[in-house]
Amino acid sequence: MSNENFGPLTGVKVLDISTMIAAPYAATLLADFGAEVTKIELPGKGDTLRTVGPWKDDEPLRWPGLARNKKSITLDIRTEKGKEIFKKLIAQSDVLIENFRPGTMEKWGLGYEELKKSNPDLIMSRVSGYGQTGPYRERAGFGTPGTAFSGHTAISGYKDRPPVSPSYSLLDYITGIHMGLATVSALYRRDVNEDGEGQEVEMGLYESIFRMLEFLVAEYDQNQKVRERSPGLAGHSSPAGTYETSDGKYVVLVCSTDSTFDRLAEAMGREDMLEDDRYYTNAVRLKHDHEVQNIVAPWIQKHTQDELTSLLDKYGVPVSPILTIEDIFQDPQYKERENIVEVEHPRLGTVKVPGVVPKFSETPGRIRRRAPELGEHNEDILKNSLGLSTDDIAELQEQKVI
Predict the structure, then answer these.
(1) Quick one: what percent of the chain has pLDDT higher than 70?
(2) Distance of CA 242 to CAs 245, 296, 301, Å?
(3) Rounded-to-integer distance, Cα 357 and Cα 10, Å
(4) Is position 172 annotated as part of the catalytic site?
(5) Average pLDDT over residues 75-103
(6) Is the peptide bond preceding residue 318 cis, with omega within 30 degrees of 0?
(7) What is the tally of helices (H) and strands (E) in the chain?
(8) Is the pTM of this model over 0.90?
(9) Which one of the listed residues 57, 172, 380, 392 is annotated catalytic?
(10) With 60 as the cut, is the pLDDT of residue 212 above it?
(11) Which of 99, 14, 20, 128 has the alpha carbon at shortest distance from 66?
């Protein structure tokens, strides 16, 4: 293990053969915290994420943030020589992350049982649309359809309009977080137990958001209620929602506890509501939510966004302005927390991307390497890690193995 600390996962070696967002994001999180991540891409094509917008000119702007801290080599693992090289890399790795359709790796002769022959300690983390088992296992899976399958889309939007999908790849990122946690959990189990060994870790895309809908599951199980669409929190808290301020801006306010509402009532000068049997608890406020909203919304609209947030902050009432990305770039909290950082780019000069979170006091993660060009580290890894000669590499290139 290197003596130089790049984060709590320094010394962990990861092979990332996945594409697009969910599984690559898991690998990026590991890389942010110090893991040495080598991305294996198809020669001449690379990860399809390299062709996904938004763009500046011909440059994909998602790539610098999602592929940072990784090395890139090109290798066609479907070829015999490619498989041979791949297994040598597996022998030197702790983790393999993949997101092919279930059965694909096995069809290529690279299933977990086969790879274990090269490295019994390997953790193989697998993401697919619907998981490695079940009647839908072979279906193609992407984030937005997966969100619909999870039950999330059915409760999103307005009752008088069609259900609304998230405006970005929410499911993929949440799945990436789950898989990052699962991978380090498997590593921990392997490395702290005397009989520790490698194992497969897998999940379907839809399962990550479904895991977050425990209220929906229990509510249907116990009450047989099919929750309808709502544009905000529904059936949880009153008052809660999006409110317009006097300067035409918006805030989000949520009173999730009775003590929070007590403070809001005091801020509004409406302590009388605390003695009113229509408003004094969250349970009864939910039954009279329309009346509550007719009191709270007009009061909010008498204040500017800054006035309101300043006032409610003094009373300890959770409220936030709805920030645009332009607002975020100017916000002092984001600056102090280094939530936006700059990384090098071979053609754009620099690009701003989200910073590394969570923050560790003793072993902080960091961005130590810009997103790689396709095959940028072929010679470095094939020569220095596997001992191939310059002639060997040239021959592999000629045969389109790399």
Answers:
(1) 99
(2) 10, 11, 11
(3) 16
(4) yes
(5) 97
(6) no
(7) 17, 13
(8) yes
(9) 172
(10) yes
(11) 20
